[in-house]
């Protein structure tokens, strides 16, 4: 028996949670803990999360994100159906382009916030966050009258992120993928193994995602990237909560759920109520926009000693003793030397500079509403070059 596969048993919940094509490689390269996301294991611990953060922002890290499952939509009506699912106008989207989209329901609630990849005129992937979009899409299709085919293909992404990621990518696959513009992708044949390589990632740093289209080659791909990347500074790692909170990047179930709508997050740019095409939430989002929202998503800077780890409950936020919201995600940023948090608060206390209080595990602390992102607000790091 493979000793590494045997070692994975200590993390296992049984066959109801799937391993990724990279699980064993991640374990070999130092993964010390896993979480569950989209019914799969994802490495969450390679030791010190602060060191993982510095590895990301100063060099490059390789992350197993096969949990970002793809919902594939094909068929004669695939473009029309994909638009029907999303409130963002997709009419000008080009083959080879990615877009950040929202999947919203008949009440305007957010089901998921995936990256959409257009592989052909009627061929799309939704690279999803942690919710069951496949089932939602299949249910919609049954009642839509549209001719579409919806599956979860054998596609498993890795994230290669950090300022040295372009050098690692060039060493692994040559010059062509390094010439990709931000939010573009290409199909790539790696010695007979099919890949899709995109200029995307969940870090707000320069980075790429490598979508393996043959799960049996997971070990081979991981080891290849580490072999060429280590001399260039590549480290195995995990998605960084510190960096994603600095960037104000949303995490489904943590920051948003089905109870939220796009306007609460000021994501109006992802909602086009004027387009001719119909979509599931059009009437509901029109109604919500007319009525206005009672809460907004904001950034908070929290005073006091450095937070250890992240919050595992939604900490209540108070104004003059009255609860006015809750913290969704929090962390201490070693770069900013501040406690930072994302929160949902009542509109009347959402203005920049508003002074509030938050109930931490250790007691109440003062906090201030501040702009998000906390760092690199123009996202120049991810988009440069």
How is this structure best summarized?
With 385 residues, the protein is of the alpha+beta class.
Description of the molecule:
The protein is α+β, with helices and mostly antiparallel strands and 385 residues long. It has ten helices and 21 strands. It is globular.
How is the secondary structure organized here?
Elements: H1 3-7, H2 23-28, E1 33-37, E2 40-45, H3 49-58, E3 60-64, E4 70-74, H4 78-85, E5 98-100, E6 103-104, E7 110-112, E8 115-120, E9 123-127, H5 133-144, E10 149-151, E11 156-161, H6 165-173, E12 185-190, E13 193-198, E14 207-212, H7 218-229, E15 234-237, H8 241-246, H9 282-291, E16 295-302, E17 316-319, E18 322-333, E19 338-346, E20 355-360, E21 363-370, H10 380-383
Parallel strand pairs: 3-15
Antiparallel strand pairs: 1-2, 3-11, 4-9, 4-10, 5-8, 6-7, 8-9, 11-14, 12-13, 13-14, 16-19, 16-21, 17-18, 17-20, 18-19, 20-21
Helix pairs in contact: 6-7
* Helix/strand class: alpha+beta
Mean pLDDT across the residues is 96
The total strand number stands at 21
Strand order of the largest sheet: 12-13-14-11-3-15
Percent helix? 10-25%
Distance between the termini: 46 Å
CATH topology heading of one domain: Gyrase A, domain 2
What composes the largest sheet? 6 strands, mixed
Q: Rounded to an integer, what's the Rg over CA atoms? A: 21 Å
What are the salient characteristics of this protein?
single chain; about 375 residues; alpha+beta; Gyrase A, domain 2; Elongation Factor Tu (Ef-tu), domain 3; six-stranded antiparallel barrel; 10 helices; globular
